[in-house]
Design brief:
single chain; mainly beta; Porin; 9-stranded antiparallel β-sheet; 2 helices
């Protein structure tokens, strides 16, 4: 069933990103051995909205977002100068509470490849991309299936507070569709703004 979610061209990027992430050799030690030591668990809160006319999106859907994240560092320090950093795998469980329409929240799972830049001691920019399955129990017009796929990419900044904890600030593009497995298949193309904390 999940294979069908990735049949379309738009969703084919997800397994490729995940495969590339998993092929990287794991780091020799735990998170504390990376150039950016912090606890691997994070929670993020924020707001998102789809935009009619962005791609094939036809309706506006607003959400209040909570994302639970576990980070698995996969490499030691890479590169030099401004692009010095490390690569990691993010496993996320997103919960998207609908604001402007009734129905249960959207719940899913995401696997994302992340690269964190570590040349600065005060601010750690990072980029990420990936996706996974997303269950949409609410009846949203134009979405012909409850089981969908979602992929996303974004940028963020980690601001260390202590040796183990940090604040997170993110903006991400988020796409939801059923991959053409059901009709209709009007996607939701959204922007999400999030703040978080590692603990």
């Amino acid at each position: 069933m999940f294979f069908c979610l990735f049949r379309s061209r738009s969703l084919s990027i997800i397994p490729g990103i995940l495969l590339a992430t998993l092929l990287v050799n794991p780091a020799d030690g735990p998170a504390a051995d990376t150039p950016d030591p912090h606890t691997p668990f994070s929670v993020l809160f924020g707001y998102g909205s789809s935009y009619p006319g962005w791609g094939s999106t036809k309706i506006r859907v607003q959400t209040i977002d909570t994302i639970f994240r576990y980070e698995l560092p996969k490499t030691q320090a890479l590169g030099s100068s401004w692009y010095k950093g490390y690569h990691s795998l993010l496993v996320e469980v997103p919960v998207h509470l609908l604001v402007d329409r009734s129905g249960p929240p959207m719940i899913g799972c995401s696997f994302l490849a992340e690269y964190t830049f570590t040349s600065s001691d005060r601010l750690r920019p990072y980029v990420f991309a990936g996706g996974g399955p997303l269950y949409v129990p609410a009846d949203i017009p134009g979405m012909g299936a409850h089981l969908n796929g979602h992929y996303q990419c974004g940028i963020g900044i980690r601001h260390p507070l202590t040796d183990s904890h940090a604040l997170l600030f993110e903006v991400r593009y988020h796409h939801v569709s059923n991959g053409g497995t059901e009709d209709p298949n009007d996607p939701l193309n959204s922007l999400k703004f999030l703040v978080g904390y590692t603990f």
